[in-house]
Amino acid sequence: MGKKLVSFTAVLLCLLGCLCGCTNRLNLSPTEASTQTAVPTPTQTPVIYPTPTVGASDVSVNKEDNIESLEGMFAGGTKIWYEYAEDYDAPDKYLTQKSFDLDEDKFKLYEHLFNCTWERGDSADADDSGAVVFIGDDDKGCFRFYLGSDIVAYIDGEETEYYRAYIEIEEDYFPDYPRALLPKVIMQEFSAYERFANRVIYLKADDFESKEDIAYAFMELQIAYLKAMTPENWYSLADYQILELSLSQSKEDKFIFCVKPAIKPKVYENSIWFAGSGEAGKGEWAGYIIRNDYYRLDLINGYWEARPCSSDTRLNEPVTYPTPTVGDSDTSAKTNVTVIEQDGISIAFPSEYCDLLLFNPEENFYHEAGALVEVYYKPTYGKSGAGWLFSIVRYNQAQYEQYLSGGDAPGRFFFAKDDTYYYGYFRPTDVQHFDQNDMVIFNDLKYNLGDFVRQDILTRNNLTPYSDNEFWSKTYTYDSDHVYLTYYPYYAYQDTAAQQNFSWQDVAYTLVLSQPAAQGDTGIWCVERMYDDPKYGYIYVHFPNTEGLSAAEYYAKLQEKCDMGQHSELLDPVQVALNYVKLVHGHSAATIDSFVKAEGLPEGDYRH
């Protein structure tokens, strides 16, 4: 059977979700569907990944037991940390941070990473002298991930259980990497923490005679940091040579310089350093990556603060983000607030806190499309570029529908609406602050300030209170007749099912179809929801996303075309369902016979 192939790097990056990702995944696993990227569509239906052997096997039980153990760790607060191999003794290995706190909201990501194949392992397979990553409270209650293998140990006091944890990958295409190993995926998660723990470097202005000297001094510190990172970190470098360095823009108290380096990553194949401007070196620089990178430095209180920037950053361009201006209305004066006016919306903050806050910084790793204001804790942002507290976003109907298509997203919800927009509150689910000296202040701002801002926006702008539950509490998306179809994804892949020792009838999904525009014999049909197999218990909603149209606008246009004799297949719910599983989920071998009419919604405890 032919397969569309994806790179090993892409598999790992998809597993990590970046920073967007969706927390629920459809658990469909025909060989073709599980090893190819789903056909791109205008929806945000979760990408299909391979799943463990189906059935009430030891594999499924092991997975669920370990997810439950992980949940217990996160409930009390936990951390991720790295330990070097016994024989690794580089003198600069202590220059970077090796342990990071994980808050409870981060559990959803790790729960997804743990949703892979877990088989019983043996202690003899574990190399205790090699490098490892831990997740847990301490070395007596944790998961231990043995790097360079698929071995994971769960340690509970004096008891240790060993597993092999992985996701199968196309063996013909990846002879050296037939599996995506869970320890390797967890290492990539740690890599991001370690890489961005040092985003800002400070240099004392009196120590330098020229801006060129400052730039070279910055690069010396930057290079030392990148070389000192853990050997398995995808950002870690074995060598870094500056080929060219020049100032691109300069003012008395700020400047930007460009550096062209030849860098040699410790992990060269599919290196993340190829992203952006990276190109493979040639000749004497074979095995290196040649880049063009830009950095901005600002003179603040006697120190040059240096951080990466993009090639199109301009010193002279005015800041386009809103800045807080003290409101001059009677209400603002009486309540002592600072008000930001953005796109017709007034957002107020207690003035007593404003010296600690930074609004919409230019360099913003967490920037969200549709954000009205993005709020940072200024002391943390100044040191590391982190410190994101929360954002207030505004979505139109089409954007909000795509948000719903992703299912529950930790740290995100919508709290208000008007005739045109929905207003959401997004806060981080990863660690944003590391200094224990002012952790109480940071947490107070993170939780209590956000509550104040949301309540004030409602009253100040005459918005209507809203909750996402208004959508999720409804059984259906559209008021119309409904058709229910049971979909057997393995009907078209019966050999695959037999190879995995289960029957194609053992996995079934329920599609709910509606008539979103006109009803009756002339009304088109659409798939509005999908219930996956009861063993997983998720509901997925489906909204089209074509050129920013809402579902209602999109289906109205399709209905008009159907009324004119086009797209007659949309009048047949089974044809609509078949097209849905092929285009949205990549099940190209599915047929009409893969579907059986159902009597109604499936029984069971389903969640979105």
Question: How would you characterize this protein structure?
Answer:
The strands form 5 sheets. Strands 1, 2, 3, 4, 5, 6, 7 and 8 form an 8-stranded antiparallel beta sheet that branches. Strands 9, 10, 11, 12, 13, 14 and 15 form a 7-stranded antiparallel beta sheet that branches. The two termini are 33 Å apart. The protein is of the alpha+beta class and 608 residues long. Strand 26 (526-531) and strand 27 (539-541) form a beta hairpin.
Short description:
With 608 residues, the chain is of the alpha+beta class. 25% of the residues lie in helices and 27% in strands. It has 14 helices and 28 strands.
Keywords, separated by commas or semicolons:
608 residues, alpha+beta, 8-stranded antiparallel beta sheet, 7-stranded antiparallel beta sheet, 14 helices, 28 strands, 27% strand, disordered N terminus
